[in-house]
Model the fold of this input.
Amino acid sequence: MPARLKNIFSDFLTLLFPVFCQACERTLAAGEDLVCTHCRLKLPYTNVHLPPPELNPLSIKFYGKLPIKHVLAYLYFNRAGRTQRLLHALKYRGVQEVGELLGTWYGHALGEAGYTDAFDIVVPVPLHPRKRRQRGYNQSDSFAKGLADALGRPWSNQVLKRTQYTASQTHKNRTERWENVAQVFQVMNPHIIQGKKVLLVDDVITTGATLEACALTLLNAGCAEVSVGAIAAA
Ligand SMILES: [Zn+2]
Done:
């Protein structure tokens, strides 16, 4: 189809099926994709990747536990705010493109801040196979792919496996949560990460217990170092 006709056709489709911003639910303007320009400006960026790293407020989640090289999260989690709506679209409404878009944006921001050589491979935290079947996908995969592509690095969801279907963490205290996740992960293909600088990614960092359990599993399997990255920090 000629380009002009294609544009008219796509404008016509937009008129029939308006496309909404995944962060504020307003109708997107022509040229906007998934997130409107206003929301992109107003997202609650953590900017923890910018120096000085010793003042990174997220690092405290892992102090005294594991040597995590970089602790990164793109956005702050705000209840009933833009971040929550984006995560909801990604996790519960099947809009996997949101994960890839945020990964791409964050990957470019990290690249501009000099992180390009900080990671050899991006590895998403896996879902239990049963949960993955229920949802149809792992919400962290698309974020990992966007990040990896923007950083010019590979990503793999064939490294980690979740072997137990954990119950909800909501009513457990910190120690119980840790015990709950400590034995949950396995490395399937250690050769992929041995001697590598791994960027382990998840949708949200809350207590850090899940990321900590994955990171320990990766370190035990012989990777050189682990950094963690999330779409949002609660
Ligand atoms: Zn918006």
